[in-house]
Amino acid sequence: MLTLAAGGFHMWREFASKLDSIALGLRGIREDLGENVASLWRCVHQMNTSNGMSCPQGQDEQTLNVAVHAQTSELPLQLVSGSPRAQPSHCTVFAAVLTQSVSEQETIKFNKVLVNDGDHYDPESGSFWHITDLHLDSSYQESAKPRNVCLTSLGLPVTDAGPFGSHLCDSPWKLVHSALERMRALFPHPDFLIWTGDSPPHLPVGDLSTAAVLDTMRNFTSAILTAFPNTLVFPALGNHDYWPQDQMPGNVCEVYSKVGQMWKEWLTDEALATFKRGGFYTQLVPWNHTQDSTPLRIVSLNTVLYYKPDHSTAGLVDPGGQLAWLKGVLSAAQRDGEKVYVIAHVPPGVDPWHNTTFYNPATNERYLSILRTFADVIVTQMYGHMHNDCFRVLRDTAGTAVGSVFLAPAITPWKPNNGKIASPLANNPGFRLYKYSHEDYGILDLWQYFLNLTDANLKRFADWHIEYKMAATYNLKDLRPHSLAQLAKRLEEPHGKAFALYFKYFLVSFSPNLPCVDCCQWIHACAVNFLDHTAYQRCLAQHRQTERLPSGCFAR
């Protein structure tokens, strides 16, 4: 509905049926609602031929939004974000609101667009999905005896089995499908989708094979293609996407070749050629919001090559030549005026649970040096691997925030175990939607969705819903480096509200009231603030002294 000074609209079903007849007008609006005046007014006049309810002048935005929401609540609605798209098989109902009077000679710019969940569509921003760590356990059987429910419990009895899984098991197919279906229902046409790896289950080497790994990755690729057939997907390899797990080579291998073939629907020939050599690639996002918009480049890295358990690359200065290649790609992007999103599976920085870096220390420092050198080009970085929801702030040598790092939580609810004892902590399944600026591609917000696994199993229904919206939750202007640095500072406040929220969401609301204070707080707060190990240790030492904590407090 276009709610103008001339009046509102009432008959939503009749309105929806007219969308096809005004497709030309909508196409004119798509790129910029103020750009094509003639097309816009043609669209307006057609819509104003409908019968409609009157909207009193001077009605405030909140009241108007509630009224629109009430009118549309019984219709099959879809979340609107990004540029409106012509989709013959879908009907998208939205309301563009013009609250200022204009003449037909003026350029029209709608200042608010209302959608079915009460949020606002911003034509200057876009959105994309991020999923990671799906970890399929195809052996999962809800009705089996406790020790036979799934292989990934490693023989531990599973007493909480339900249709959507258990915290002792990796993901059953039903959980993965429910996640993809919910993502499609929420937002079927993202600008793109990021998938940061780890498809196979957490099983001993002897229980898997290259064929099993490839079969799982093929199934997930097919599932994502089915859920998002018209969406460009940018994938990255995880440490479990190889057999034996963690042992990724820095050269041509069967996995790189065959997985590359699976992903040929998404990647260019040039990207595929690079991927088949070392499991990494780069590719421009093939659209522009305006003719003069800055190009956006995705750089997908194989950071498993730097992962400490990868013995096949131990001692190599630059396995696969990836770091040299990365510097070349970023230098060219800098020269050509491009912006870059870096995606990968294993993140740089410190694993707070083990008080050490994920990469071998020398490579961690070399990688961070490259990120700092090209901080003007790299807009943000996105990873998985930890299964937890967290972020990091990249700082230059003077301590100024120059980069943002986001670690998305896993789909799998599995918690680590050794066959005798399991970790007391786990995560609920989660996926997220990023909001970004069309102008500079800066991250504006992220909407984290989650599934309360216990409730879902009890109700036998997967009620995926918003866990939090980051900017609003932490009262941030956006999620650019400067804003994240402000939040990172607040995480250091002893017993502060910001850190309590952070740790709740870190576990994806697995145990919302679990305290994390003193030593627990500082290992996480320091990991957020410092990605290099020396600075991280210095941060811990400072808190150990100022908070008068025992010297063994941070030992792992």
Automatic annotation (TrEMBL):
Necessary cofactors: Zn(2+)
SUPFAM superfamilies: Metallo-dependent phosphatases (SSF56300), TNF-like (SSF49842)
Cellular compartments per GO CC: extracellular space
Alphabetical keyword list: Glycoprotein, Hydrolase, Metal-binding, Secreted, Signal, Zinc
InterPro entries: ASM_C, ASMase/PPN1_MPP, Calcineurin-like_PHP, Metallo-depent_PP-like, Tumour_necrosis_fac-like_dom
Residues in Sphingomyelin phosphodiesterase C-terminal domain copies: 402-544
All residue ranges annotated as the Calcineurin-like phosphoesterase domain in the record: 128-388
Compartment(s) of residence: Secreted
Gene Ontology molecular function terms on file: metal ion binding; phosphoric diester hydrolase activity
Keyword Nucleotide-binding belongs to the record: no
Pfam family, one: Metallophos
PANTHER family with a match to the protein in the record: ACID SPHINGOMYELINASE-LIKE PHOSPHODIESTERASE 3A (PTHR10340:SF24), SPHINGOMYELIN PHOSPHODIESTERASE (PTHR10340)
Family designation: Belongs to the acid sphingomyelinase family.
Name of the protein this chain belongs to: Sphingomyelin phosphodiesterase acid like 3A
Protein source organism: Eptatretus burgeri
